[in-house]
Design a protein that fits this description.
It is globular and about 45 Å long. Helix 1 crosses helix 2. A 6-stranded antiparallel sheet has the order 1-2-11-10-7-8, covered by helices on one side. The longest helix is centred in the first third of the chain and has 16 residues. By secondary structure, it is of the alpha+beta class. It has a single domain, classed as PPM-type phosphatase domain (Phosphatase 2c, domain 1), CATH 3.60.40.10. It contains 3 helices and 11 strands.
Length: 205
């Protein structure tokens, strides 16, 4: 497991935890947390398969997202699709936080699951991914925009994590501790696994 954390400038608290499938030394699941003026991009990428080749594809997509994180999510996915053409491809979920309007816009291709937990009610909203593979067969993209309130928490997980994770209630632990705890509880041993937790603080914190 590799936990990491950082904070944006009064915008989010985040943490990530990951591990490769047993027997491999490199994880093919990667995350991106990239600030831009007035917002932040959060993404989880799962290179198909596992090991060094999957990691190579995921790093390529992560590089694309990190270069221009402020672009619309649809355009970012299309850029990744072009760059990954001819590779084994990847699935991904990306979410763009807009601090000026307190909104999140997200989209998903393939089986990287995501849920936004509401701090005020403990309700959750889940993303509905489109079937496809970025770099191979891109579906018609669908974006959804949601309102945000302070302490709303976005959780993203690759398919190396049990779906039971999203049946659990949102944790009040700091985001890095939350990511590590969830990975310990819900990671499978049949695939790479990664969990990214992003808690929204907003500009007024």
């Amino acid at each position: 497991m590799t936990p990491q954390s950082a904070t944006g400038p009064a915008l989010v608290e985040w943490g990530v935890a990951s591990r490769p499938i047993p027997g491999e030394t490199e994880c093919g699941d990667l995350h991106v947390v990239a600030p831009f003026e007035g917002g932040l991009l959060a993404a989880v990428i799962d290179g198909l398969g596992h090991g060094s080749e999957a990691a190579k594809v995921a790093r390529c997509a992560a590089g694309v997202l990190s270069e221009t994180p402020g672009q619309p999510v649809r355009e970012l996915v299309e850029k990744c699709h072009k760059i990954l053409h001819g590779s084994r491809g990847a699935v991904m979920t990306i979410a763009s936080f807009d601090a000026a309007t307190d909104r999140l816009t997200w989209t998903a291709i393939g089986n990287v699951e995501a849920a936004l937990y509401r701090a005020a009610t403990d309700a959750r909203e889940v993303i509905v991914p489109r079937a496809g593979v970025v770099g191979y067969q891109l579906p018609r993209l669908r974006e959804t925009t949601l309102s945000l309130a302070r302490d709303d928490t976005l959780v993203l997980a690759t398919d190396g994590v049990s779906h039971d994770l999203f049946l659990d209630s949102s944790s009040r632990l700091p985001a890095p501790d939350c990511a590590g705890s969830l990975l310990d509880r819900y990671a499978k041993y049949s695939d790479d696994a990664l969990i990214l937790v992003v808690r929204y603080l907003g500009l007024a914190s």
